[in-house]
Task: inverse folding
């Protein structure tokens, strides 16, 4: 907790100099220096307002507090009291308020502050660009500074509101900087995946030739082993595994040029087949079984991709078991609950086939659970970090959802929710339009390809070469256009964040997707999610189509309803 009033910043106490000094300090502070700059600003604010203690609370961040009573040390329980009081007064964060605290109050935070002698508190909202980013608490042990408590309550000095505004802008700038860094990190990961994909596609051609020879020999081996049931079944399993491998190789060769093909997948039979194929690679100390199988558990999708989900989840579960243990698969039909929190995807009010893969291993801690589906994240020295990210991609492409839970008695449970056959058959994975206008802002060569995708889905694209033209068009008729594709490259990404804000200043409800080089699946930008902005790769027709679906399903109906 800071007790230092920075020299030079307080020279003009109560005057314009304090505001200018704090403004300069916060403006010059980088992310790593922002906490110290805010501490200094709180010191200046407390001195200007003759406060005994000043605190700043903001969601998701530790409380910042300053003690400005040099005659007494800061009480050890001050931080806890301020945190509790801020939680109690969170609803007051939208307006400036003055409070007289009661030592016998019901609220624990108010009671503790009052018993510390802090009987008078001013609450000053700290605002970002679009919402309240935090709350300033100016605490005193005597009557407030200049004003008396009247019917409407006193107002904090001008300095308090000005410095609160400066802190709010600094927090907003830092949030935007962190958000941009996260988006760039995702783009770098996407580029690494593209390089890996290109390498894999090149290798697939050679693997296909080797695999064809292997499958040819298995036919000969089958004929030669008909007298031995054990040998025949073993060779048959090799042949089945080789055929599945051939299907996966075809997928590698067709990356970027295949559409979603509907095919009925019987999940119970697929689980049994996968267990037979993967059993030889699992240590014998680990039991592997399908314990419960729901009759008629069917979905629609690519059988080889769904089997890849099973392979990866079973192997991941087995690797989590150090000694003896078990991996148990179950299948059952459940109704989707939209309020159920999922790590990948979201549930709708529909029927699902739920595949559970439960292990008795070491479990997954809270930190790893947030990262395990991110490409290249691994906790194993020999791991690639691509197994679970592949699972997440496949489940998302099939319109499913996924979450990880702690298993009773230890271990983990991976729940995969696939739409049932009937529900999946009614779901259109690509959006269909009826002529709704969509703006496409990009250079001509790129724009024409994007326009082809948009038009093929039934929408009416309007292509423009420059954002200024698009802004003029929207300003002329802000209710006519239903979505915008804004095409850029990684170097200019920061500029396009600001451009997205400019589009929303003209039409706040307009959904917008920033298209960048690569095959990045549509990602909602976290810090501006309320502004309906997505990021997607322009080199994938599937990503462009999925972004359209997300944009048209994000609105309130005034700009075209989502169609499924």
Result:
């Amino acid at each position: 907790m800071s007790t230092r009033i920075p020299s030079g910043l307080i020279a003009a106490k109560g005057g314009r100099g304090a505001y200018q000094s704090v403004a300069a300090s916060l403006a010059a502070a980088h992310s790593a220096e922002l906490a110290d700059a805010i501490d200094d600003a709180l010191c200046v604010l407390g001195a200007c307002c003759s406060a005994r203690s000043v605190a700043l609370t903001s969601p998701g961040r530790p409380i910042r507090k300053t003690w400005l009573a040099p005659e007494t040390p800061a009480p050890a329980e001050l931080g806890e009291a301020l945190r509790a009081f801020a939680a109690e007064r969170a609803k007051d964060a939208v307006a400036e308020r003055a409070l007289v605290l009661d030592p016998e109050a019901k609220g624990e935070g108010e009671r503790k502050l009052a018993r510390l002698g802090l009987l008078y508190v001013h609450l000053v909202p700290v605002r970002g660009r679009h919402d309240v980013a935090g709350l300033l608490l100016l605490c005193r042990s005597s009557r407030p500074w200049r004003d008396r408590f009247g019917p409407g309550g006193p107002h904090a000095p001008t300095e308090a509101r000005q410095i609160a505004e400066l802190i709010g802008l600094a927090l907003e700038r830092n949030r935007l900087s962190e958000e941009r860094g996260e988006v760039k990190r995702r783009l770098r990961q996407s580029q690494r995946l593209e390089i890996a994909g290109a390498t894999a596609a090149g290798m697939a051609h050679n693997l296909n030739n080797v695999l064809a020879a292997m499958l040819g020999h298995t036919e000969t081996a089958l004929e030669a082993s008909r007298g031995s049931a054990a040998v025949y079944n073993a060779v048959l399993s090799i042949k089945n595994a080789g055929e599945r491998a051939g299907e996966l190789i075809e997928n590698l060769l067709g990356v970027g040029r295949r559409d979603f093909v509907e095919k009925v997948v019987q999940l119970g039979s697929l689980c049994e087949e996968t267990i037979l194929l993967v059993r030889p690679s699992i240590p014998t100390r680990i039991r592997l079984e399908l314990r419960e199988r729901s009759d008629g558990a069917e979905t629609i999708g690519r059988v080889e991709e769904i089997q890849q989900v099973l392979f990866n989840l079973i192997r991941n579960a087995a690797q989590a078991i150090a000694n003896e243990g078990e991996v148990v698969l179950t299948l059952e039909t459940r109704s989707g609950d939209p309020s159920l929190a999922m790590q990948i995807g979201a549930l709708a009010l529909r029927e699902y086939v739920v595949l559970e893969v439960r292990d008795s291993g070491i479990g997954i801690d809270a930190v790893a659970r947030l990262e395990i589906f991110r490409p290249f994240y691994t906790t194993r020295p020999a791991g690639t970090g691509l197994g679970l990210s592949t699972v997440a991609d496949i489940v998302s492409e099939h319109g499913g959802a996924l979450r990880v839970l702690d298993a009773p008695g230890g271990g983990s449970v991976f729940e995969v929710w696939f739409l049932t056959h009937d529900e999946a058959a009614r779901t259109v994975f690509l959006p269909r339009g009826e002529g709704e206008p969509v703006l496409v802002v990009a250079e001509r060569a790129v724009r024409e390809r994007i326009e082809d995708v948009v038009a093929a889905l039934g929408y009416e694209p309007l292509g423009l070469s420059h954002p200024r033209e698009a802004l003029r068009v929207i300003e002329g008729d802000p209710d006519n256009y239903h979505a915008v594709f804004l095409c850029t490259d990684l170097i200019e990404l920061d500029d396009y964040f600001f451009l997205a804000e400019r589009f929303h200043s003209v039409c706040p409800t307009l959904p917008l997707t920033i298209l960048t080089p690569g095959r990045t699946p549509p990602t909602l930008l976290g810090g501006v999610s309320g502004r309906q902005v997505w990021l997607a790769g322009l080199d994938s027709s599937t990503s462009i189509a999925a972004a359209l679906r997300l944009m048209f399903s994000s609105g309130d109906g005034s700009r075209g309803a989502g169609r499924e």
